[in-house]
């Protein structure tokens, strides 16, 4: 096992009816800004429930944070906070609202140009406003991690940053709040969480038995509950297990002390930046192809994955790896998430620009061995067509 430094201070309050607990979670004298997305939280009553729980606190709202939150929109929230003397943020939504809130929290306290936060991948963050979350979409794990991904539309850049300053103080996870999600977002959430585990598990063995078995249990849970979450949208236990699996997929324990890949995510971000695909759609396209391309360095873990996650025991080693990759692609497709660039109308003529974006963003040595270069990324993208 590799050395690690595990730290996660986020308090998770989980279960039906827990939005009412905001009254004890948010400081009584806080001047609160509630940040939300394009209106789902307003339409389905979640915002009203939040407002009621906050009681007599001074509360203002900032709506309109887009999926793949934009720098341009978030900077408007930063201005509002300075103008109104707000001292506590509450994100109500999915990964985009939570990521956006993390950026806003850091940007409010940043002395120079806030874009530096993303250019330095968070190294320039020294403090942030405190914030909490009410999660409405199980997918990213943002509710219990210190990562954020922001898009600057003017330069077609989708960049991530990390900082211990932007762990949520708390996150309220009420599975009932996910009942209104459209099937596309449920499927996206299952794929995103699955790929988060894959990025931390499908690398090379380092004798990390706990992390491996935890990763396998999360993958198996997602395979089990993903289709049920689509088939029976109001099944509380299914939604609860999906929600906790997605949170755990990217909150630290799976990735502590093991090598991590993340090339699928980095290539995927460029697909979102240039072609507007949903985050999970990009992952469903890239992961199966990347696993095939990287079958030699990932060989031992792919065999373990085939056996322990998909119960594939027959055939020679390459046949078992082929079968595991095929099962992965079929799983994404079975949820309704297409896995080929062509399915999204993207052809071979798009690849030069995608590779140029990877280069511009310094994504020239990706993967757990830092040897996935631009030539390999190009090969992977060509195989995704
Ligand atoms: O905007 P509204 O109207 O609220 O609608 C949203 C949005 O259109 C809707 N939605 C959310 N909760 C709902 C609901 N609709 C009905 N009922 C509800 N309960 O769902 C749509 C998508 O929301 P979004 O927040 O964009 O989805 P997701 O949670 O998948 O977040 C994706 C973003 O997170 C980033 C992605 O890159 C992407 O920008 N990621 C963040 C990570 C992190 N912080 O650790 C890791 C991930 O790898 C990922 O990169
Ligand atoms: Zn992701």
How would you characterize this protein structure?
The protein has 385 residues and is α/β, with parallel strands linked by helices. The chain folds into 2 domains: 11-177, Rossmann fold, CATH 3.40.50.1970; 182-383, Dehydroquinate synthase-like - alpha domain (Dehydroquinate synthase-like, alpha domain, Up-down Bundle). Helices cover 47% and strands 11% of the residues. It contains 15 helices and 8 strands. The protein has helices at 22-25, 40-43, 46-54, 71-84, 95-108, 115-119, 183-201, 209-231, 236-249, 263-275, 279-293, 299-308, 317-334, 351-360, 374-383; strands at residues 11-14, 31-36, 58-62, 88-93, 131-135, 147-152, 157-162, 170-173. A 6-stranded parallel β-sheet has the order 1-8-5-4-2-3, sandwiched between helices. The protein has a two-stranded antiparallel sheet with strand order 6-7. A hairpin with a 4-residue loop joins strand 6 and strand 7. Helix 10 packs across helix 11 and helix 11 (279-293) crosses helix 15. The radius of gyration is 20 Å and the shape is globular. It starts with 10 loop residues before the first strand and ends with a helix. The structure holds 5,6-dihydroxy-NADP and zinc ion (ZN). The site of zinc ion (ZN) has 6 residues, from helix 7.
Layout of secondary structure:
Layout: E1 11-14, H1 22-25, E2 31-36, H2 40-43, H3 46-54, E3 58-62, H4 71-84, E4 88-93, H5 95-108, H6 115-119, E5 131-135, E6 147-152, E7 157-162, E8 170-173, H7 183-201, H8 209-231, H9 236-249, H10 263-275, H11 279-293, H12 299-308, H13 317-334, H14 351-360, H15 374-383
Parallel strand pairs: 1-8, 2-3, 2-4, 4-5, 5-8
Antiparallel strand pairs: 6-7
